[in-house]
Structures are given as structure tokens and as C-alpha cells.
């Protein structure tokens, strides 16, 4: 009850209220020791750092110290389903206890806060829920493995080439990883992937590192093996992708850099399958099987377009392989002289004859100088762009094994550069 009283005070009238109340014991209390938040009528339940996508559960025990049974209720938690009630609320008998289970499942890397109120008709217990979402993080070194990838170079059919990188667990908890390849257009003849990793999977403790070895072991001749390795870590937000590529040859001398026939027109696989199975091959493969002296058609496109009056260079490589089992032999590249019309049009090649020591690889440079002035013989005269082209004929000789023809492996290389109108 409150009895108002009035007193005269300097400058005005003062009003006094007499307030009386009674304090009673709460019927439910916390039995779980949780820290109190200063200046706030609540305790804190901290889940700590939890990996994104992982769910953990904490328990809070309540005790009914009142003189009657109490029906327990809980406020609804947020719709984001980061914090959640695991079990349903029920009546707590006098002198009995009940365990409330709360889950935490972070969805992203951030800190989460929410208040859970557990109440009866007489008492309310407020619990501040707190948790930090952290993402699994695997560090890959060197960083160039993801930007540039790995080129396994040129190998013989059935032999292997290796590259390696290191993975390190930089998060405060153990994590697992696995190696996943996206796949190549065509498998090896034995239906075995040409690229594989060892180990293929593993678990790393906090701060632990492991070396991963990538192996390129093709079993059929293809000049365009490539793939993408994904270092997969569950719930890691940033993808770890490593491009890989390599080339496989059955002859000792080779050319790399130009574009070979695309996979859908690839005669190499069909020819080898037909040879092994004794079956008929398609027209492109038949050409390889029946007349190896016919030149292979390759294409080398300059990486960037040119404008009137500009010059550019590009290159391709030739080499002589050295087998780990039988060694190798020196080879030679011979390029036919360009026609006078091609030289007058601005094309040049250097060198035109190149010895190839065993296990060595050398570059051949191609140069194109665009016309200084437009004329009616080119599309730029009419304001259009076009590809300027030139065919380079050459032969590869020697190596171990050597090409089947005495003339060597004949190649026809189409050179292409995009010429645009006007000046840059």
C-alpha cells in the first residue's frame, strides 16, 4: 500500500510515496553454472567458435524448488534457425529438474547473439545465447598452384611425371580434405584417369601440414590432357582449384603449343583402340593407321589481335623425349622455306632448322608484321576484321622411337592472327 504525503519544499511541492512489496523465492532456478552478465538480469551461454554448417548442442538444467508443479515455457527463437530448441518444454514436478537442450548451427562466418527466455507462471530465466561461426580453412602452397596450375610437360605413353604442393590446416580445429578431379574428355585406354593424387584424402590437426603429390600417368597418345583438381574441404567457403595439364607421345620427337584436333575429332584414341582391338577405325584414325606419312594438321593462333602497322610474335616448342626405361635419341626439326608471297605479306619464322638433343626442348619463333597501310586486298580496307593466315610445313626426324616414315613425321601448321581495322 502507498500513502501519499505532501511537504512544502522551496520552490514547489514535494510528493512522497511509501511503497511496500514482498519478495518470494522463484519456483525454478538454474542448476547449470553460467556466468552472469553485469548490469543485466540474465546469464550467458557461450557456444564458442563452431565451424559453419556444423551443429553442436549444449544443455541447461533447471530445478523446481517451488511448492507446486510448474509448467515450463520458452520463447520462440529467430527464424534463421541458427539457435534452436532441441527438446520440447514440459511440466516440471515439485522438487524435480528438467534439462533444456539448445543447438547452435552457424550459417556463415560471423558472431551470433540471441536471448532465450524460460518461464513459468511465477518466474522467468533469461539466457543470452552467443556463438561464433568460423569456416574451415585449408591453405595451399605455393599460391601459384591455384593461379598457374601445374604443367606436367611431355611424357611417353605409360610413363609418369609428378608435381607436389602442401596443404596446411590454419583453423583452430581438425578438418578433413579430399582430392577430386573434374575429369577429362576421354579416359585412358584402360579407363584409368591420367591424373591422380596421393594421398587422395586425409585429416589434419590444427596447424598440421601434409604434402600432396600429383601424378600424370597417361596410357595413350594425346597432346591435350587437362583437368582441374579440387581440394575439397566440407563447408569451406573458398574453393581450392588447381588446373593441371600434360601431353603424352608415342614417338620420341614432338611439337607442343599449337592446337591439335579437338577431342570430338581426335584420331589418336580411335586409332589406338582400333589397333588393339583389330577393328575398323573412322576416316581420321584410318589416316593415321594406313598412311603415317600424311601430315598432321595443327593450328597456332596468336594470343592477341593486331591493328594496322603493328607487329607481334608467338612461339611453339619442339623436343626429343628421354624415356626412363630405354633412354632416347637426338632428333631434328626441319621447316620448309616460306613462300615469297608469305614473306612479302609479313610472315617470318626463326629458326628453320633445329637440332634436338635427347631430353631437350627448344622454341621456334613466329613473327607477323601487319601492313603499314590498308589496301583493297584486305578486309581492314572495308572496316572489317579478318584472320591473316599462313601455312608452315615441317618435318620431325629422329628420336626414340622414330617416326614410321623415312621422311620423318610431317606436320602442316596453320598460322593465324586476327587483324583489326584502324590504328590502336
From TrEMBL:
Protein name from the UniProt record: HYDIN/VesB/CFA65-like Ig-like domain-containing protein
UniProt subcellular location: Cell projection, Cilium; Cytoplasm
One CC-aspect GO term: cilium
Protein keywords: Cell projection, Cilium, Cytoplasm
PANTHER family hit by this protein: CILIA- AND FLAGELLA-ASSOCIATED PROTEIN 74
Organism: Chlamydomonas euryale
Xref: Pfam families: HYDIN_VesB_CFA65-like_Ig
Domain of life, per lineage: Eukaryota
Residue intervals of the HYDIN/VesB/CFA65-like Ig-like domain: 44-130, 148-232
Amino acid at each position: 500500500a502507498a500513502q501519499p504525503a505532501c511537504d512544502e519544499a522551496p520552490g514547489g511541492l514535494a510528493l512522497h510515496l511509501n511503497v511496500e512489496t514482498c519478495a518470494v523465492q522463484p519456483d525454478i532456478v538454474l542448476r547449470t553454472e553460467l556466468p552472469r552478465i553485469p548490469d543485466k538480469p540474465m546469464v550467458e551461454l557461450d557456444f564458442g567458435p563452431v565451424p559453419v554448417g556444423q551443429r553442436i548442442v549444449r544443455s541447461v538444467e533447471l530445478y523446481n524448488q517451488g511448492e507446486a508443479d510448474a509448467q515450463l515455457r520458452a520463447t520462440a527463437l529467430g527464424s534463421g534457425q541458427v539457435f534452436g530448441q532441441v527438446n520440447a518444454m514440459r511440466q516440471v514436478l515439485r522438487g524435480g529438474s528438467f534439462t533444456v537442450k539448445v543447438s547452435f548451427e552457424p550459417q556463415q562466418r560471423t558472431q551470433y547473439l540471441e536471448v532465450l527466455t524460460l518461464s513459468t507462471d511465477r518466474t522467468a530465466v533469461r539466457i543470452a545465447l552467443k556463438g561464433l561461426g568460423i569456416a574451415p580453412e585449408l591453405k595451399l602452397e605455393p599460391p601459384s598452384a591455384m593461379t598457374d596450375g601445374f604443367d606436367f610437360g611431355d611424357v611417353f605413353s605409360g610413363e609418369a611425371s609428378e608435381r607436389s604442393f602442401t596443404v596446411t590446416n590454419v583453423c583452430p580445429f581438425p578438418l578433413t580434405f579430399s582430392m577430386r578431379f573434374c575429369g577429362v574428355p576421354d579416359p585412358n585406354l584402360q579407363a584409368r584417369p591420367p591424373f591422380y593424387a596421393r594421398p587422395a584424402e586425409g585429416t589434419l590437426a590444427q596447424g598440421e601440414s601434409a604434402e600432396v603429390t600429383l601424378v600424370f600417368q597417361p596410357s595413350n597418345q594425346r597432346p591435350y590432357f587437362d583437368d582441374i583438381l579440387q581440394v575439397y574441404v566440407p563447408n569451406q567457403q573458398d574453393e581450392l582449384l588447381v588446373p593441371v595439364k600434360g601431353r603424352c607421345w608415342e614417338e620420341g620427337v614432338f611439337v607442343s603449343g599449337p592446337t591439335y584436333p579437338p577431342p570430338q575429332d581426335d584420331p589418336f584414341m580411335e586409332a589406338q583402340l582400333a589397333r588393339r582391338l583389330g577393328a575398323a577405325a573412322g576416316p581420321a584414325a584410318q589416316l593415321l593407321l594406313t598412311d603415317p606419312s600424311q601430315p598432321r594438321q595443327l593450328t597456332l593462333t596468336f594470343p592477341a589481335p593486331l591493328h594496322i602497322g603493328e607487329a607481334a610474335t608467338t612461339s611453339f616448342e619442339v623436343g626429343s623425349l628421354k624415356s626412363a626405361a630405354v633412354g632416347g635419341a637426338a632428333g631434328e626439326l626441319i621447316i620448309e622455306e616460306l613462300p615469297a608471297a608469305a614473306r612479302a605479306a609479313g610472315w617470318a619464322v626463326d629458326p628453320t632448322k633445329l637440332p634436338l638433343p635427347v631430353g631437350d626442348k627448344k622454341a621456334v619463333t613466329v613473327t607477323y608484321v601487319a601492313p603499314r597501310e590498308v589496301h583493297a586486298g584486305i578486309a581492314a580496307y572495308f572496316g572489317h576484321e579478318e584472320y591473316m593466315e599462313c601455312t608452315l610445313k615441317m618435318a620431325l626426324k629422329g628420336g626414340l622411337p622414330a617416326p614410321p616414315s623415312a621422311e620423318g613425321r610431317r606436320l602442316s601448321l596453320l598460322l593465324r592472327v586476327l587483324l583489326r581495322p584502324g590504328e590502336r
